[in-house]
Design goal:
31% of the residues lie in helices and 28% in strands. It is built from five helices and seven strands, in the order E-E-H-E-E-H-E-H-E-H-E-H. A seven-stranded mixed beta sheet has the order 1-3-4-2-5-6-7, with helices on both faces. The two termini are 14 Å apart. The protein is α/β, with parallel strands linked by helices. The radius of gyration is 16 Å and the shape is globular. The model has no long low-confidence stretch (mean pLDDT 91). The protein has one domain: P-loop containing nucleotide triphosphate hydrolases (Rossmann fold), CATH 3.40.50.
Amino acid sequence: MLRFVQSFFVKSAVEPADYPASAYPEFAFAGRSNVGKSTLINLITDHHGLAKTSGTPGKTRLLNFFLIRYKTDDSDTPGFLQLTDLPGYGFAEVSQNEQEKWRKMVSKYVEQRPQLKSIVVLVDIRHDADKKDILMLEMLRLRNIDHCVVATKSDKIPKTKIAKTIQTLGKGLGLKQEPIFAVSALNNTGFEPLMDWIQSRLG
């Protein structure tokens, strides 16, 4: 199993010229504002406060880069990877101009970051498939960018309904071969399949 043993904030950036130099594979986290990207990053790194969480949706307007040292059960040799927290999208009070800035920023990132291995798209398990999430996933498919979906806040629905809800949500999002994982930050559950998926992309 993959374990993150050390994590560091590297820098924030907007333009490709300001991205940190890196020789390591990179995994980005995308999703609507307030879906829990920063919380998920803090949990899987076991580093409270690594990614800044905010009660104000749409506040994060930068790409935030983190360096991770990891170990796996089948190797004593540590490895390194990077995580990138993308600005949240879909917050209604953000102007059209700000939304266009977000679109350009993310487009440049996925097009001009050769280290990018995969993108983790977060959605809220309590809600039906959202148009903006569908558009995000369609963009990733069109550009042949490897990705999975994480459905957050699974503690908010009965355990007996999680599997069916995930199935319905995946269908609504148009998922085909892409996996979808249910996680709960409150109960700290569901992260193992996501970590296994990330590990499978490190080879």
